[in-house]
Prior knowledge:
The chain is α+β, with helices and mostly antiparallel strands.
Amino acid sequence: xxxxxxxxxxxxxxxxxxxxxxxxxxxxxxxxxxxxxxxxxxxxxxxxxxxxxxxxxxxxxxxxxxxxxxxxxxxxxxxxxxxxxxxxxxxxxxxxxxxxxxxxxxxxxxxxxxxxxxxxxxxxxxxxxxxxxxxxxxxxxxxxxxxxxxxxxxxxxxxxxxxxxxxxxxxxxxxxxxxxxxxxxxxxxxxxxxxxxxxxxxxxxxxxxxxxxxxxxxxxxxxxxxxxxxxxxxxxxxxxxxxxxxxxxxxxxxxxxxxxxxxxxxxxxxxxxxxxxxxxxxxxxxxxxxxxxxxxxxxxxxxxxxxxxxxxxxxxxxxxxxxxxxxxxxxxxxxxxxx
Length: 339
């Protein structure tokens, strides 16, 4: 029986984070720190027995795909690549669920802040060659279901999506919508050329499993060394050129570069040279020639994706500077071909 000294209050609620710690036997949860992430919720859990990272996936990540990705990481680990393996639950499984979301736990790693500098990218290029070697070696062992959401679409799909964005904007008359329409038009002009090389050369581009979102923000450095490769959410069988173009596009976008096209392409050349120091499959002549066009394609995905998002005008305008870089790459590709 309750007495005045023990007021009844509200019934206790069990948070999802407490459920996670109970599932993994982590003891008392002290504090939670959100690491961020564009798609997944990544939480540092400070517990009685140490620090861990809980990753709560979006509903589109299925158990089948997560199991395949975990198996892939185990295979890469056996090849001495720096991947983080998932922690087992109390029952020995490597993931759990909360409502309609997959959840996995990893040990927490101390890491340096992201240093957007050319030496960091060159270090990442050397590691990318090793990662591609590993992905080619283990990629045939099992079928990995394609991701339901990624940052990749064939040029024909990008064209259809951007046309759909234009249709969404055609009845809007305010200035920002007009600017967004103009950007879509620029993107479609670029895509006309991209579609030409895609149809002529896509069968000549080496295909393999790729990371899909490789860059400094998915690489853990500690005291200047790469200690982990992160975020395998977009792993899929793609043309290898897409991975290289994607990584180098973001390098150019984020580095404080001089305006000279020669300087820009020299940085790209350095990246490719470091990649080829470790890659067992050198760039083909076709890959080398088409790298600028493949780079110009990268930001078109984010403009095309506006077709499925609530505020397409805002999304398109957000990528105006990315599209400007894509145009610059396209216009200055002759410099690359002469290096």
